[in-house]
Each structure stands twice: as C-alpha cells, then as structure tokens.
Specification:
Length: about 80
C-alpha cells in the first residue's frame, strides 16, 4: 500500500497553504465598557443608574441633560437648573 501515502502528503500541503492565506493577524479586543459601570468599594458593589424598563444590567448612556437607554430608547431628563 505504498501508493496511498503519496496523495495524502500532497493533501496536507494544500491544507497548510489554505490556513496561511486565511489567517489574519490577531488583535486584542478592548474590554467591554459595561464593566465601567461597576465600582467595588470595600465589600459593596456600586452600580450606575440602570434602565427601569430593562432592569439592572442595562445601563443608561449619559448625555448633557439626559440619560438614555440604547435598548428600549427610554430617556430620562435631568434638572440641572437646581443650583
Ligand atoms: Zn431600557
């Protein structure tokens, strides 16, 4: 069965070439910004304001005078004139 060895070797070479061309240089992804909404102080975990409709875990994006939920489009306006 020495004839069967040759074609398998050729197949391996073709596979290696395909792997080389298909690979892209690996880049490290930046960590999710979701973790920035959590802060650990001592034994307590402090969370940012979350969406009242989506529940804890869905945080509100902060804008100039409002907070906004990107999931359900909930918007809450803040009163900044209380000085
Ligand atoms: Zn929401």
């Amino acid at each position: 069965m020495a004839q069967e060895e040759k074609p398998t070797e050729e197949k391996k070479e073709v596979k290696k070439k395909i792997e080389k061309t298909g690979k892209k240089p690996h880049k490290n992804k930046p960590a999710s910004k979701k973790y920035k909404h959590y802060k650990v102080e001592g034994d307590e975990v402090k969370r940012d304001k979350y969406c009242p409709r989506c529940g804890p875990g869905t945080f509100l994006a902060k804008h100039k005078a409002r907070v906004y939920c990107g999931k359900c489009h909930y918007t809450e306006f803040m009163k900044e004139e209380a000085k």
